[in-house]
Amino acid sequence: MLKGSHFLPFGSDQIDNSNDTFCYFEGLGKMPLKVTNSTRAYCEAPPNTAKLDSTFVEVMLNNREGDMTDDNITYYYYKPPKIYSVEPREGPTKGGTIVILSGLDIKVGKKIIC
């Protein structure tokens, strides 16, 4: 299962501050929308329980009239990397040791933090 927990920012002049405003992730369900002002809001990406592979899903908001947006905005769920080994396995408490990780699905060219 691919986990969510990313917060997605939205900007629009149609964001309603009512309690029934939400964002909908195609095939995964709706999530509460946290409105910060009339042009900006955030929602948390739900876990991707539908697919185990990396995939794009459309994200929609409900507007003031209760209709869903149709802006063709997508969110990308990626398969988390699996780490099989780390070399060296130890280092000094002061830090600074270069550590080499080996595994699967490590994204080349992406900003990754150990």
Number of helices: 0
CATH superfamily of the domain at 7-77: Immunoglobulins
End-to-end separation in angstroms reads 21 Å
- Class per helix and strand makeup: mainly beta
At CATH level 3, the topology of the domain at 7-77 is Immunoglobulin-like
Helix content: under 10%
Radius of gyration: 19 Å
The total beta strand count reads 8
Report the sheet-strand fraction. Answer: 35-45%
Q: What global shape is seen?
A: elongated
Mean pLDDT: 77
Please name the CATH architecture of the domain at 7-77: Sandwich
What is the chain-wise order of helices and strands? EEEEEEEE
Largest sheet, order of strands side by side?
Answer: 1-4-3-2-5-6
Describe the structure.
The chain is mainly beta and 114 residues long. It has a domain at 7-77: Immunoglobulin-like (Sandwich), CATH 2.60.40. It has no helices and 8 strands. It has a 6-stranded antiparallel beta sheet, with no helix packed on it. It has a two-stranded antiparallel sheet with strand order 7-8. A hairpin with a 2-residue loop joins strand 3 and strand 4. The protein is elongated. 11% of the residues are buried. Mean pLDDT is 77; it is low at 1-7.
Feature tags:
two-stranded antiparallel ribbon; six-stranded antiparallel beta sheet; mainly beta; single chain; disordered N terminus; 114 residues; Immunoglobulin-like
